[in-house]
Model the fold of this input.
Amino acid sequence: MKNFGRILLSLLVFWLWLVLVRTYYICGVKDLCSPESDVSSITRGKKPLTLTVSADGIRVLDNFPEFVFDFSSTSFENSDDYTLLYDKLAAMLKSQPNSRLMITGYYLENEKKNDAFENLGLARAMSVADKIAKEFEISSGRILTSGEITKDSVLDKPLQFEMLGYIPSGELLQAREEENFKKQWKDSITIVSYNGLLAIFEPNITECKIVPAFEEFTVALKAYLQNEPKAKILLIGHSDSHQSEAEAKKTAMNYAKMLDKQLKKTGIKNRIELKSAGKTKKLVSDVLPDNTADVLATAKNRRVEIIVIKPSKKKNN
Done:
């Protein structure tokens, strides 16, 4: 009986020793017992409703709670809000098959001591991406992930979401683009660019869309040209990369002809010259990583530059 008691006591001492060794290894060697206050909102506190999803700079989803991850971990407290977010993201991806979702995960400097993850931010992003892909049957290739370490002392936004190649609602997009177009001609009436996001330029059409901001521009341009009767207007059409050189050259000229027609309708009498740059001067890459067309970028590349050229002054001998 005494031997049994000794054995039991020895086992208890050994178990306590193991606990102490494990605690030393985790906290002393790995330094994974950092105080919770170091990570603030990543582990504690009310979740702020500041999580948004953007597409080409336009906010398409907002007022969702920020994710709150456990320290140095990919674990987070799930909620119905996140289920709703996943549902909306999946619906957006399914509504526009050429779109992609980019999720970027972040982590703090003092979290990188966890050897379980080479890039904790990437692991966090992938944990959410996998969930969306599996639950909503979205191809994993349509959800891209990346991870970065943040230099901030507090991790307020551990995940960021962006829709790539996704066309926001027409009203949101047009409002943004009209504002940009207005800024162009108010900064300089002599050189502006009217792009396919507003004009809806397509290769096989003969009429483009004229938005209110363009009508305002033509009024201002006509007033400017009244004081410059000898100025020439140069229209340079640009196409995208999804056509051959010859096709792009022809299409870009067609875009220039569309605006030539519109300017003449306003009663502008100045000489108008048309040129085509084809696809030689794209503003942005309009091809996605899988070699499909980026619809928004394509529309940006389809444009017509409107340049007012004043006659050079002759020097007196």
Q: What stands out?
A: Residues 29-45 have pLDDT under 50 and may be disordered. The first strand starts at residue 51 and ends at 55. The helical segments are 2-29, 80-95, 120-136, 170-187, 196-199, 212-226, 245-265, 295-301.
